[in-house]
Amino acid sequence: MFCRTVGVALFGGSLLSLHGCGGGGGGDSPVNPDPHDAKPTPSPSPGVPTPVPPPVPPVDPCISAPSTPKGTGPDAFLVDELNQIYMGFDESDPNSPVGVTMRTIAPDMDASFWCGTPCYSGYADCRVSASMYNNKVLIKQDSFEVAVTMSRLAGIIYNQTSVEQTIGKCFYMYDATTWGRTNHGCGCATPGGCDTPDGAYQNQECQYEHPEARSGVKKGTCHDNTEKSPDVDQCWCNSDDRRKATTPLPEHAKTTSQQCFFRGPALYPPAGTFTNEYHEAMRARIKNQANPPIENKENSTEIIIKQEFWNEIIIEAQELERMLKIHPSYAYSAFFYIRGFEDGKKKAMEIQEQVFQQWGGPRVPIVEFDPKVDTRCTAPFRTKGRMPVTVPPTTTTTWDGLSCAGEWGTCGGGPSYSGPTCCSEGLYCAKKNAFFAQCEQETTSTTTAATTTTTTGVIV
Question: Hey, where are the domains in the chain?
């Protein structure tokens, strides 16, 4: 809770008496003199300018702040580049860096993503959610430290060039509950579950007997949503056909609003590559988070500080998989852990090993992320510190050396793989590439590796 302290001046004690202020007749002045008897404040002499105090120069908060340490060792260039991108956004320069795209990972999550897999609660398919960080957003209001999304301890740093040219699908100023949106998270929110053709999972544009109620789907009229479909285009921030009643303009949006999206290059891959609108999106976010800086959460006493609230950028999983098949570094620049947390280090190492087993080498680097810096002055990325000696590969932690893998389990890998090579009854081992294979149902069309399952079965 944030409070404003108001100072109150209290006057008490003996009464004030004025003496010798009469009109020349002597005697005591009244206890409560008439204010009209007060002498007027003399006006400046004609022609004599009133002195103007010199302006007080603003205090530079970075005078005594530590400078950003240079990267060291084999990852020096990577660390320095991440810091440069993080600090480089300039609202007046459309060619300036927009930020670093990062996805935080909970303890029960990993680097898996789902595309073409069976429906889960009607959630959108082929989407991975992340946030874009720079020193103007996701910053704590009082200390200017980094406000890490969901306070998690480790995660993935995406190749920013790929985000801006290939794998980035769309950007929302704030969290947009994209699991319930069409077009793999980059469209309008839509009702319905697994069996609803125009729901988020099936992602179909249909014609209806009753269009206003979206009921009575006409048989044979449904097809995949495209960038031109109403359930996509109407929620694009720059669309002429935006649903103004439910999707406000960016300058009017709240963190709890039905957000509109800004386009990324992979908005709809079959239509080609789109020009990303990330710089415009970041300008809109910075303007919105300051006007006003806080908001009251609906039906709650909780106060939301908009500058600290995470944005959401969607990665198109089909394009992400394509980049991973070419080379993991085309998709991921690094994995990170939060400085000072050993559990974060272990999680980063687990993710590194998982990606190596699935997609091959060389291993993607690990870097340290220090959120306890004044981001007005100091960038947060560091060369990794001392790491745990060993972390067992995620593919072999529960294998007894005899049993076969279950559905979606790993059944093959690269030269260092030592897990099961067979699948449970009713499954077959589907080879994805030279470094990864998984167990699937004969009728399942799976395009993306998933060695483990989170508690919800979906990345948030």
Answer: 73-195+229-391, 393-454
